Known about the structure:
The complex is a heterodimer.
Chain A: H1 2-25, H2 34-44, H3 48-81, H4 83-98, H5 101-112, H6 117-140, H7 144-152, H8 157-195, H9 200-209, H10 213-244
Helix pairs in contact in A: 2-10, 3-4, 3-6, 3-8, 3-9, 5-6, 6-8, 8-9, 8-10, 9-10
Chain B: E1 3-14, E2 17-28, E3 32-36, H1 43-50, E4 58-63, E5 68-71, H2 83-90, H3 97-102, H4 118-130, E6 136-140, H5 148-165, E7 168-173, H6 176-182, E8 185-189, E9 196-201, H7 214-230
Parallel strand pairs in B: 3-7, 3-8, 5-6, 6-7
Antiparallel strand pairs in B: 1-2, 1-4, 8-9
Helix pairs in contact in B: 4-5
Amino acid sequence: MIKLERTLLGIILFLAIWQVLAICLDANTIVPGLGAIFSELTGLVGKKTFLVAVVSTLVKVIAGLLLTLLIGLPLGFLLGINNKLFDMFRPVIMVIQAVPVISWLTLVIFAWGIGFRGPIFITFLSLFPIALLTTVSGVRNLDKNLLEMATLYRVPRWQVIRDIYLGSLLPFIVAILDVTLGQAWKVILVSEYLCGNSGLGVLILAARYEVNPAKVWALTFLAVLLGLITERLVKLLFRKVAKRWAI
Amino acid sequence: MGNLIVITNLAKSFDDKKVLDNINLSICKSERAALIGPSGSGKTTLLRIISGLETPSQGTVQIHTRNIGYVFQEPRLIPWRTVEQNLLFVNPDAELEDILAKLRLKDFKNHYPHQLSGGMKQRVNLARALITNPDLLILDEPFSSLDLPIKLEIINDVLLQWQERKFTMILVTHDLKEALLLADRIIILSSSPGRIIKDLTVDLNPVNRKISDPALLSIESDILHVLSSAY
């Protein structure tokens, strides 16, 4: 309870400083008053355009994450068990990691124009190296003694993958989701802003055109809140999985 | 009784280092052999060759069975699987009730490895080897980390299982007393590279041996004499 009280106190203190700054600076374009932000917030929530934007962003976050996991995990697994393949793919992975997002954005606009696919693809490119390299290191950290035990008892390959590999990789998969989920929200918003046709990023862009900083902050606050909620939900799910796998 | 294992002129090197040299050894069905020797004498390497986990650099190894149970030095249990799941991992069709009861694991079948004591984990390690119905049971220093009372309990468990199933057994140990309690034959290896320097028969009742038994103490003294002159 004391912890909660301290957290609440921290939030109140932050809001108070914000309001003082808004009054003192009188710079509405940077630090709008809390009242203006709150009124934008209440105006947004419940509005059809806002709900459609939330759903659109959420679908893109899920699609980007699924694409990252569905390609990153199996490929990471393959590269983890095969050093030759890893050496072959390493330059490509390093290039994907090193290329600035802005270059990908430009190429995506050339290829698909403004639309739904761009933000998902950009998210995938940003998160894929994290998923792949973490999986590779998970496979490499596997307890070789367990594999030797399975070899000695001639346990079928599929069973070894299910019972040993998957169990060993689970903490790494949890870490991947933990890191990528937070990042996915940020990347999706930026790419929606630059090459999307719907979503919260597009609403922020519209607020920019309207020169409405209170709306920008209101949308930012809602995006952060949604990000935190999805993170909490996924963590709750992890806890259930972790309990089942005793990790 | 026929031989289950015949090893001829076996040598094993890792890089340029020879760890085993000129090993000639036959082990009969149902025999209980103990390999003892100093660290680096290649005892574990010999077990790994017999079980097929390593290949010899030279010589031949004939094993007349594919049913091998291996009790590892460290339990090698899958941490996120229960005792029951760990056992079924190596033999999904196994009937577990009997072996769990005999090794006093019945109340722990739903426990995870981290919830078990060291002795319990080694019992699961032993149970896992036994549920494959092995013709050959390999024990690679399985008692080295256990307290004496637990060690004696598990040795007794192994002997009861041997009486029931009459599998061939090879034990690797540093502890001469363990070898004398379990084996009817003691093979002594020299220090690196390991060679067989003595092959002794333990002429005692196969089960119910006691550490304090004068006959056992007398054999122990003879072996210690051999060891002190060999090393």
